Structures are given as structure tokens and as C-alpha cells.
Structures
1.
Amino acid sequence: MKKQLLKMLLIIGAGIASYFIIIHPLNWGISEELGSGFIITSDKSLLYRDGNTEYFVLPFGVTKYKYNTKWIVAYTEGYSITRNLQEKKNSSSLTNYWIIDKEMPIHLNKQDSVVLYINGIAYPIITNGLIGPMDSLSFIDSVRKFDIPLRIN
């Protein structure tokens, strides 16, 4: 009887933990609203909020960022990114630069998102207005090209 009760409590606990870890982690500790529905969470994820639903733009690791009414520039570190789990040649480095055009319309459908594999784990992210990942030289070129008045030191 005790074993069954313990199993049931473990299953319920795992279900509750799964909900808060997998399904609804995005509401924990919002630290800053960046405008146009974009937010940075306390765990350094960049998200887009549409009503009560939140979508990954950059899943985690945003260590530096700047923003204004039109742009967000961000720097991520600590993980490698591939667009295909089998292909390592399209992998980017552990440090990446990103630009987000906040004026670009967000369409929440499959063709406007991509699955990135970060350290082997799949993260669907929104790609509307997202430029990156880039190395520092490509980032500087893009900032100049789009005349973005934001810099990351």
C-alpha cells in the first residue's frame, strides 16, 4: 500500500514538475519588457508574447542585449547551434550575435519558425525579423547595413 501511494505521489509530482518545467516555464520571473511583445526573462530567454502564449525567439543564454523601438540586438553564449541534428557543418560557435527587427510582422505558423538544435535539444523558434546567428564581424556589418544605432560591448 505504501509503495503504491509513493508511486502515485511521485507520478503526480513528476506531472506537476513537467508542467512547470516543460509546458509553462515562460512565465517565471519576467525581468524586462522590450516592446512590441518581446520580453527577456530572468533566465535570459528572449520570447515573443502573443496574448497569453509565449514563443521562443532565443531560447536561453542571452548575456547582453540592447533595444529601442525598432531593433533588438543580442549576444548569446554557452551553447552551440545547428539547424539539423545530423549536420554538424552548419553548426555555429558558442558565442553568437543576433538582430531582431521588431517592426517585422510576426506570423505564428510553421513556415515562419525553425527548429534549432542547441546542444542536441530541439527548440522551435520564431524567425520573423530574426537575423543570426552571426559572428562579431558579420554582426558589425549588419548593424552598419541596417543603420542600427545600438551596440553591444
Note: The chain is about 20% helix and 40% strand.
2.
Amino acid sequence: YSLNLSFLSVLFSAVDSRSAALYSKEEDEYFTMNSDIDGDTENQVELEEKTRLINQVLELQHTLEDLSARVDAVKEENLKLKSENQVLGQYIENLMSASSVFQTTDTKSKRK
């Protein structure tokens, strides 16, 4: 299952931009002072979050593909059943027209 890399790039850019917008100037200064200490940890957290998002996107993509395949199968089954229904309907109609039970005759109405 191919996943468009530019889509992922845009997705991560949007996540990064949104995250960056949430920090105030003071938080940025604090972050700069502690970047040496927390840099590796924060990079690890960011990497884990990106990995989680990629896995979630892939899972959703697989689910969508499965649902699409199921819809196609149901449509095919529906067409098959409609066709069989038409054949059975015609068969019943032919039986009814050939049977004297379902025939309306003038002789019955004349007897009354």
C-alpha cells in the first residue's frame, strides 16, 4: 500500500506548525535553555508521535481499503440477487398464468 510521501510531509508540517504556535515567547526561551538537557528526550518523543501518527494513517488507510472492497462485494451480490429475483418473478408469473386457479373466467360469473 503506497502512501503519498508529500501527504505525510504536509501532515507533519501541519502538526509541527500547530505545535509551534502553541508555545509562547517565554516558553521558547525556556526551551532554548533546556534544549541541551531535554533535546534527545524531546526528539525521541517527537519521533514516537510521528511514528504513531504514521501507523494510525496506515491503519485508517487499510480500513478504508477493506471497507471499499466490502462495498464492491455487496454491490455485486445485490446485482446478482436482483437478477435472480427477476427470473423467479417471471417464473411465478408464468405459473400463475398457466394455472386455472388464478384464471378469471366468465363462466364463474355467469353461474351466479
Note: Residues 20-26 have pLDDT under 50 and may be disordered.
